[in-house]
Amino acid sequence: MHARGMLGVALAAALFVVPFVAPETAQAATYPSWDEIQRSMQNEQTKQQEISRVQDSLNALHTQYEQATEALSQRQSEFQAAQQKLQQQEDATNEIRVRALAAAQRAETLKSQAGRAVAQLSRSGGTDLGNAVLGTQDASRTLYRLGAVSRISESTRNLASQATSEAKSAKALSAQATTAEAEYRRLATEAQQKAAAAQQAEKDVQAALEAQTANESTLETQLATLKGETEQLKAQRAAGIAKEQAERAAAAAKAAAALAATRAQAVNGNLSTQTPAVSSGAVGYPLAVAQVTSRYGMRLHPILNVMRMHYGTDFGAAYGTSILAIANGTVSGVEGSTLTVRHVVSGQTVYARYLHLSAITVRLGQTVSRGQSIGRVGNAGLSTGPHLHFEIHVGSVSYGGGVYGSSPGNTVDPIAWLRSH
Ligand SMILES: [Zn+2]
Known about the structure:
Oligomer: single chain
CATH architecture of the largest domain: Orthogonal Bundle
CATH class of the largest domain: Mainly Alpha
Number of helices: 4
Bound molecules: zinc ion
Number of domains: 2
Largest sheet: 8 strands, antiparallel
CATH topology of the largest domain: Helix Hairpins
Structural class: alpha+beta
Strand content: 5-15%
CATH superfamily of the largest domain: Methyl-accepting chemotaxis protein
Mean pLDDT: 81
Order of helices and strands: HHHEEEEEEEEEEEEEH
Helix content: 55-70%
Low-confidence stretches: 1-28
């Protein structure tokens, strides 16, 4: 007993758990979730940030490229200047070398001239000198000649000495020029290397620029794709939601209709939609097809929404449907849309009352026979739709304490009465 009770609880719990889970998962599969769209938008944002970084890098590269181009131009003009200087130095060095060579040659010539003069003097002077010592020659002429020779050789020696000095300094100048030339050559080479490096740097920056430009282009394409994906997800979600809302609205309308039907049933009680059988041939139903929509007795009024006595039975029927006399009798009342017919059934006087009629086709005092058409179904008075409100009063027409009271007065349940007669 106890175990069975626990099993019951477990079963109930299981039954409760399953319906809560299933619709959620089923619903999630039909269209993209907001999270999915958020993720897609996040992807876009990430891509956009990546593009921004690449653009920053591109801006920096553009600046670098300008600087590299400027540096290259600077290095190239420096190289040109260095080459020019080297050229000038080479020309100067060559000139100095030529001069040094000329000076050396001149010194050489003068030296040999001086040497020849001295040799001549010593040869002739020696003879003359011997003559002079011996006294056979004119001494004063000899002395004069000696002096002249001496002066010539002196002058030549001076010239030779000067030329030698000149050649020496020209050689020194030439050596300096050669050193200077080497230095200018070194500078020119260095300038050339710098220019080449600047050119390479410019090329590198240009390559980086091209690569980053291509990168940006790729990223932009990817971003466009991501945006397209997001748009697609959004459209799918909007369509999914619209469809779901339409389905919900349809389901809600259906549920509302079902609920309204259930409420009507609840208000009217547990009713049969079939025409109730009548016990004998003495009386018939007030409609050919008698479909009960509200029973006799205490009920919640559908319009006033208060508990009050329902003095008759309501039969649902289309507007204009013929209303039939339930037995042979006499018309005893015609008041607005209400018709009253007096009958004597099994020695008992009863009054049948028909309400909400759209037409009354009999006169007061007219005799009617069972099944005769006496009026038409309508919607007159306090009514929610076309129907016949049908009452049976026993002995006389009386509503007891009043129309809105709880006392039945002389009324009885029409269905019960019809069945029993
Ligand atoms: Zn009624």
